[in-house]
Amino acid sequence: MSDTLVSLLTPNGVGAIATVEVHGPRAWELARTLFRPAGKPLPGAPELHRFWFGTLGEGAGDEVILAATGESRVEVHCHGGRRVVRWVIDQFLASGVCEPPEVGDPQSLGGGTPPARLLQLAPTLRTAGVLLDQLHGAFEVAVRQVLASPDLAGLQELRRFANVGRHLVTPWKVAIAGPPNVGKSSLVNSLAGYQRTVVSDVPGTTRDAVSVQLAFDGWPVELTDTAGLRDAEGLEAEGIERARRVLAEADLVVWVMDGSAAPVAEAGGSPGSLPLWNKADLATEPLIGLAVSATTGQGIPELVAAIVSRFVPDPPPPGAAVPYSPELAARVEAASAATDRGEAVRLLRDVLTQPG
Length: 356
Ligand SMILES: Nc1nc2c(ncn2[C@@H]2O[C@H](COP(=O)(O)OP(=O)(O)OP(=O)(O)O)[C@@H](O)[C@H]2O)c(=O)[nH]1
Ligand SMILES: [Mg+2]
Hints:
The chain is α/β, with parallel strands linked by helices and about 350 residues long. The protein has three domains: about 1-100, Probable tRNA modification gtpase trme, domain 1 (Gyrase A, domain 2, 2-Layer Sandwich); about 110-160 and about 315-355, no CATH class; about 170-310, P-loop containing nucleotide triphosphate hydrolases (Rossmann fold, 3-Layer(aba) Sandwich), CATH 3.40.50. The protein is built from twelve helices and eleven strands. The strands form two sheets. Strands 1-2-6-5-4-3 form a six-stranded antiparallel sheet, with helices on one face. A five-stranded mixed sheet has the order 8-9-7-10-11, sandwiched between helices. A hairpin with a 2-residue loop joins strand 8 and strand 9 (about 220-225). Helix 11 (about 325-335) runs antiparallel to helix 12. The two termini are about 15 Å apart. Bound molecules: guanosine-5'-triphosphate (GTP) and magnesium ion. Guanosine-5'-triphosphate binds near residues 201 and 203.
């Protein structure tokens, strides 16, 4: 396999402009061979943080912008259509460059998956930023440093952002649950900013689990509205059964209670769930704990902050090493839990994209 790789960093066939990255010792030499600048010739060595306009390939070629983003990194910004992108990548492949291995399901990424693949799937700018840091080697460098240390110093630090790493592509799952008519659907709509799910004053309105993809403070969250939990029959009972499955799979259950009925309202939920009073605008008693009104929006920013601080109490600073897939997070955690050094080293070696 060639030591220089070409990968598409942007989603395939979605944007007007695509970014193709060439990374490795031959990146600049190949750029000089394949790229014809509209102005002066390219310098002999890459000048960082500069870009050049020109065409790529023989004949008419495609008009592109070339950027030097690192000593051994070049980006080609070309038109975004699938064919153009494929053609640009083919130009590099014809010169002996390789593509990183294909991956399918983001859930089942192996240790050797380059972050460039995940970057295409990143749902928010914030997660894309974290993945870009790893693309530029933050995680790989940190793993090599740990491996180079006789007592594996830094291994605990490496697992610090494991949970964030699990959710750069796959959202955190939040279930909105509670008794009928407390305003669960209203709350989902308030958080989503539009009428995603049906609201009515008839208890038992929501029958199906309805999900919406959101970003809280730049972290991807999938919010699911569920049927109010009570003893019921028929279609409603089916919805309740579905709700229980959603709850079982959720990373966090927000247990909603009717604040207008406090303190009589029954507190419920399960250990680890986040209790929340809704209808705070109707409350006659002071509400203890988190309280919102889905109707007026009061308390909603505090609720979002509470959810974010549960999931990401310690956000990674720019440039931090993050095990950037569920698979890598699991291996780093296993390595830090390993009792003998040999086992830890074997697990860590496995996460490197390039041997050595
Ligand atoms: N005043 C006030 N009314 C609210 C608030 N939230 C919801 N409601 C009202 O409460 C009623 C029930 O709201 P829903 O959002 O449908 O309640 P739900 O919990 O989804 O109900 P089910 O799907 O039946 O379990 C509706 O009439 C809403 O307009 C609130 O914060 N303040
Ligand atoms: Mg509802």
